[in-house]
Design a protein that fits this description.
The complex is a heterodimer of chains A (113) and B (111). Chain A has 113 residues and is an all-beta fold. Chain A is built from no helices and 11 strands. Chain A is globular and about 40 Å long. Chain B is built from no helices and 9 strands. The chains are: A mainly beta (113), B mainly beta (111).
């Protein structure tokens, strides 16, 4: 088995601030994902990466940057936090290839004051 | 548009066997049926998945209709720890890596 670790668990930011969220996995999975989950809504894909140094935009990439410098880690940057924004950011990973099971981390909860 | 339909909520008592239904009438031939569950303050947890045949693992039994237009997740002898929102989703992989979650079914388990 393996585990996905997300840091920090809670993040409070100021409007306009650049905020970085980190994700680590020890599954040795090739593909990693960042999703956003808003209260009462489903998941929306922000970015994914199918291998080290690869980046693919999802449906919600505007306002975010991502970085995959190592196979085991995938970071997400909120380029300019929006006032009163509140969401959960979920990192996931999968072996790679078609129809692979995605395993999720516990999430980072963001609140922008 | 959601490709799966699930009841908003279901209730059960500890020790019961729970049947969670999911309708996916427009499922494509290459789409797998995945089930995840999620509790507050946690990320989604993988439960099981299948394509055509029924599948079983330590968590649940997945029954898939012969026409694949519906499936049922069967949780034997539920405990309080099984209380969660259960999501039935379709995943075709390919160039579309994203998982699309709907509202799911909120399963309540009482002692």
């Amino acid at each position: 088995g393996g585990i996905i670790t997300q840091t920090p668990k809670f993040l409070i930011g100021q409007e306009g601030q650049k905020l970085t969220l980190k994700c680590q996995q020890n599954f040795n999975h090739d593909t990693m994902y960042w999703y956003r989950q808003d209260s009462g809504k489903g998941l929306r894909l922000i970015y994914y990466s199918i291998t080290e140094n690869d980046l693919q935009k999802g449906d919600l990439s505007e306002g975010y940057d991502a970085s995959r410098e190592k196979k085991s880690s995938f970071s997400l940057t909120v380029t300019s936090a929006q006032k009163n924004e509140m969401a959960v950011f979920l990192c996931a990973s999968s072996i790679g290839g078609l129809q692979d099971t995605q395993y999720f981390g516990p999430g980072t909860r963001l609140l922008v004051l | 548009d959601a490709k799966t339909t699930q009841p908003d909520s279901m209730e059960s008592t500890e020790g019961e066997t729970v049947h969670l239904p999911c309708s996916h009438a427009t499922i494509s031939g290459n789409e797998y049926i995945y089930w995840y569950r999620q509790v507050p303050l946690q990320g989604p947890e993988y439960v099981t998945h299948g394509l055509q045949q029924n599948t079983t693992n330590s968590m649940a039994f997945l029954a898939i209709a012969s026409d694949r237009k519906s499936s049922t997740l069967i949780l034997p002898h539920v405990s309080l720890r099984d209380a969660a929102v259960y999501h039935c989703i379709l995943n075709s992989g390919g160039s579309n890596y994203k998982l699309t979650f709907g509202k799911g079914t909120l399963l309540t388990v009482t002692p």
